[in-house]
Amino acid sequence: MKKLIIANLKMNTKPSEFKDYAMTLATKAKLSKNSIVVCPPFTHLVAAREFLGGSKVAYGAQNISDEEKGSFTGEISASMIKDLGATYVILGHSDRRNKFKENDKLINKKIKTALANGLKVILCVGESLQVRESKQASAFVRKQIDDDLKGIYENELEGVVIAYEPIWAIGTGKNATNKDISKMVGVIRKEIETQFSAKAAQKAIVIYGGSITINNYKKIISNEDINGVLIGGASLDVENFSVIVRENY
Questions:
Q1: What's the CATH code of the domain at 33?
Q2: Given 44, 93, 102, 127, which residue is catalytic?
Q3: Distance of CA 227 to the CA centre of its chain
Q4: Could you read off the pLDDT of 144-192 as tens digits, one per residue?
Q5: Cα–Cα dist 162/125, whole Å
Q6: Could you give the CA distance from residue 45 to residue 39 in angstroms, rounded to a whole number?
Q7: By residue range, what is the domain housing residue 140?
């Protein structure tokens, strides 16, 4: 089964290092049957266009401004990203929610801005350990879905990938089981059905991102309830990431 495999390099590697990464991945991914996306830092997007353009590997940004243009020093707009050939953007990542205090209202605006500029959105949702232990995980994620997709038309959902990213399973030594993943994916699809339609829920692309490694990826990605994975740290080693993207699921 074809899967969507996304690499989030976060704030790692230098532009000079990314050149070799991109060239290696473009070569090794040629025979992959999966859809592959790499989201490097903003500074790498010119190199991504040069070395990934025309290859099987798509690329995107890790964030955008909620504003189109203007006096917003240090910000990067959706149209700037699009002009560099990027087709995806990660929004709502736990790093942005936690460290930079981005709330669902802001994320919702960013989603609308991205879609208006022709970018596909990788929307991250997920609960903390505290929320999970309070037995509020499902309600928490449902509210994130509702708030983040507020005002989005059903036909626009084709441009949204939902990544379930359990914060409690990232860098904590704790692992989400396939049962945990399937249960939350079911919650996400049910909420999409409630807010949009059964057809939208069925067509929705829902992936998983939570401490995926070269050692556990087969077990996770073989889960038929998910359409792919969002990989952080394990994607930094291009050789390991290439093994993952070439897997015939």
A1: 3.20.20.70
A2: 93
A3: 12
A4: 999 999 999 999 999 999 999 999 988 776 778 999 999 999 999 999 9
A5: 7
A6: 9
A7: 4-246
Into how many domains does the chain fold? 1
> φ, ψ for residue 182 (rounded to 5)?
-60, -40
Cα–Cα distance, 231 to 3 (Å, whole number): 13
Burial class (CB in 10 A: 0-12, 13-18, 19+), 1: exposed
* C-alpha distance from residue 148 to each of 123, 125, 223, 240 (Å): 8, 9, 26, 33
CA dist., res. 177 & res. 154, Å (int): 31
Per-residue pLDDT tens over the stretch 5-30: 999 999 999 999 999 999 999 999 99
Query: Which of these is catalytic: 102, 127, 165, 191?
Result: 165
165 a catalytic residue: yes
pLDDT in tens, 198-227: 999 999 999 999 889 999 999 999 999 999
